[in-house]
Design a protein that fits this description.
Elements lengths: L4 E2 L2 E2 L2 H10 L7 E2 L2 E2 L6 E3 L1 H27 L1 H7 L4 H10 L6 E8 L5 E7 L6 H11 L6 E2 L5 H16 L7 E5 L8 H12 L4 E5 L4 E4 L2 E4 L2 E2 L2 E4 L3 H4 L19 H12 L4 E3 L4 H4 L3 H8 L6 H10 L3 E3 L5 H6 L4 E5 L8 E3 L5 H10 L5 E5 L11 E9 L2 E10 L8 E3 L1 E4 L1
Helix pairs in contact: 2-12, 4-9
Length: 422
């Protein structure tokens, strides 16, 4: 047992932080001087875990039906979404493929409903925190099941199944992980994925899109040919980068990554490499898809229509709503940009001042935003709002990443381990 640990865990947060450092995966147990994690976790009863899993799987399925609808009616895609030329190329080259790993962010409402604010289907994160917190803190939670203990096994199974879609005779020998090497926040996840792969005897090469090359041998990363690209570089970063606010100065680097993107899309279409997650997630990650579920609900099967009404909060494009109505109904709505995550591109009406809300409605570019109906989340004993991130691998629930916050889930949210009662 590591120093600082008692019979059922760690004497204090410092002892836990040391154990976390010693994993060699996560090195940031504090953020701006505040503790990022809690030692006491969330313990779900079996019935609640099943309900969360079912909700996540239903949400994944309705995204699959969305993809099938759009693939069969390309005019709908062009009419409903505001995709750039590069994003359209990503979608069209993917051939309807979009999913490998995703995370459905679920909330249990005060009235018992489960609501999904979005499906992170492009570059879902949080895996190191989810896996390591459960491993390090399970001992202090009694007779519980770790729902994340098979995440590595199922992840590798998903990768092999993705490769088999291209050619069932192929073996997964060499993987290139592509991520934004100039950023440090996801290094823990890259390290974890590398360990999982190398433990199976799979060679791993890491790099940025600029380290990609296509030649007669196929796709190379850092000069090494690979069978698969694990893509942890957001689809909206590969393409044109355009501001979402009318008063934004824009990006200093707005141009698409023409060379790397063209090489990778061509190689995938030619059957030279497999990309996970596939570039089709450029549509499923786009929050206008949440509006499509509601505005075009009649296009879906009866079963999926039922799931949309059950799990997806009412969502509409800003182009479909009267701005004056939104201004007057601040307490009923949240604004979300098409590819924004937590932070300045998500504005939750009940959690901001009237001044911030009015300015947000006025400055949001209507074709880039949706308005989603606000829902009341049931707080925990300390008044915090649990966000149950349910991982999906090949459409099946595979684990949890739970965060607690006093308002919208942001970078300041506290992450806790998640267990299920036996």
């Amino acid at each position: 047992m590591l120093e600082g640990a008692g019979q059922y865990g760690y004497r204090d947060y410092a002892g836990f932080a040391r154990a976390l450092y010693e994993t060699g995966v996560l090195s940031d147990p504090w953020l701006n001087g505040n503790e990022r994690f809690e030692l006491e976790g969330v313990v779900l009863c079996e019935a609640r875990a099943r309900a969360l899993n079912r909700a996540a799987e239903c949400v994944a399925y309705l995204h699959q039906e969305l993809v099938e609808i759009l693939a069969g009616a390309p005019h709908l895609l062009r009419a409903f979404y505001s995709l750039t030329p590069s994003q359209l190329a990503m979608w069209e080259s993917a051939g309807g493929l979009w999913h490998g790993m995703a995370r459905a962010d679920l909330f249990i409402c005060s009235d018992g409903r489960i609501q999904c604010c979005e499906l992170n289907s492009d570059t879902p994160s949080g895996q190191p925190e989810a896996v390591l917190l459960n491993e390090l803190l399970k001992g202090r939670h009694g007779a519980v099941v770790d729902p994340n203990q098979l995440l590595a096994t199922r992840y590798l199974k998903m990768l092999r199944a993705s490769l088999a879609k291209r050619d069932q005779s192929l073996r997964l020998n060499r993987v290139g992980i592509i991520y934004p090497t100039e950023l440090t926040e996801d290094l823990g996840m890259i390290t974890l994925f590398r360990r999982w792969l190398e433990a199976e005897g799979i060679e791993v090469v890491c790099g940025s899109p600029y380290n990609l090359r296509r030649n007669s041998r196929g796709v190379e990363v850092m000069g090494t040919r690979v069978d698969m690209i694990v893509r942890h570089y957001k689809t909206d970063w590969w393409g044109e980068r355009e501001p979402v606010w009318a008063d934004s100065p824009g990006y200093p680097d707005p141009e698409p990554l023409y060379g790397p993107l063209g090489a990778l899309l061509t190689a995938e279409m030619m059957g030279e490499v497999t990309v996970v997650n596939p570039f089709g997630s450029v549509v499923t990650q786009n929050k206008l898809s949440l509006a499509f579920f509601w505005e075009e609900q009649a296009r879906f099967s009866r079963r999926v229509q039922k799931w949309i009404r059950a799990y997806i909060p009412e969502t509409y494009r800003l182009t479909s709503l009267d701005p004056e109505r939104l201004k007057a109904e601040q307490h009923l709505w949240a604004l979300k940009s098409d590819y924004g995550c937590e932070g300045e591109e998500t504005v939750c009406g009940p959690f901001v001042t009237e001044e911030v809300w009015l300015k947000s409605v006025e400055q949001a570019l209507p074709h880039r935003f949706v308005a989603q109906r606000f829902f009341e989340t049931a707080p925990d004993a300390e008044g915090r709002l649990p966000n149950y991130g349910v991982y999906l691998l090949g459409g099946s629930a595979a684990g949890y990443f739970t965060r607690l916050s006093t308002q919208s889930t942001g970078y300041g949210a506290v992450t806790v381990p998640t267990f299920v009662t036996r």
